[in-house]
Design goal:
Shape: elongated
Order of helices and strands: HEEEEEEEE
Helix content: 40-55%
Structural class: alpha+beta
CATH superfamily of the largest domain: Immunoglobulins
Distance between the termini: 158 Å
């Protein structure tokens, strides 16, 4: 027993032609759609490359700007350090200048030698640097050339009044040892009552219990 199609041959050929036409149309549409997609991908790729190039350029510019900023910061830091060092040097020079001025003034105020002998006291002075403190200075000179080294003691005292009565104070509890070759400069601080009125300063040099030189300066 055999089964035969109920469709006649001409109709089957027409149906076949329609199916083939539809398949061809679908294939053509898929081909065109594929080309569009391919074109879109190529366009996107081109834009991607353009953007990549722009990003690379911006990255290079940023790196260059950062390098310039780092160099400027380094120069600024170096300049600040140099300015600080210069400021310290200026302060030191000012301090040294003040010290030299003080030394010059001290020697300019040298008084004529007081007392006899080769060892003399010169430039004896004192000044109040605070309500309760005096600073004193003294210069001891051996007048004769090629004098032997002198070893003795010195006592410096301040005199004046305290509450209307005579008053004095020694700068040291006991005479202080001194060794003089050609000259010797000494200075120190002494505490005094704020009510004290200092009128003079006296320096006395002795050796072996005998006074060698003594000098008093009125203030």
């Amino acid at each position: 027993m055999s089964v035969r199609s109920s469709l006649p041959w001409p109709l089957r050929w027409v149906m076949g032609a329609l199916v083939l036409g539809f398949s061809a149309a679908l294939a053509l549409w898929a081909f065109e759609f594929g080309k569009d997609i391919a074109g879109l991908d190529r366009h996107t790729e081109r834009e991607f490359l353009v953007l990549r190039t722009q990003i690379d350029d911006l990255t290079a510019q940023l790196a260059k700007a950062q390098e310039v900023a780092n160099t400027a910061q380094s120069l600024l830091t170096t300049e600040q350090v140099a300015q600080e060092q210069l400021g310290l040097q200026i302060k030191k020079l000012q301090s040294d200048n003040e010290m030299l001025r003080s030394d010059l003034g001290f020697f300019e105020r040298l008084l004529p030698s007081a007392g006899g002998g080769d060892l003399n006291i010169r430039g004896l002075q004192a000044e109040r640097i605070s309500p309760a403190q005096y600073k004193w200075q003294v210069l001891i000179i051996q007048a004769a050339k090629n004098s032997p080294e002198f070893a003795g003691k010195i006592q410096v005292s301040l005199s004046g009044t305290l509450n209307g009565k005579p008053w004095s104070i020694n700068t040291n509890a006991t005479p202080e040892p001194v060794v003089v070759r050609s000259y010797l400069r000494k200075e120190g601080l002494v505490e005094v009552p704020q009510q004290a009125v200092i009128k003079s300063i006296t320096a006395q040099i002795e050796r072996d219990g005998s006074t060698v030189s003594v000098h008093t300066t009125k203030l």
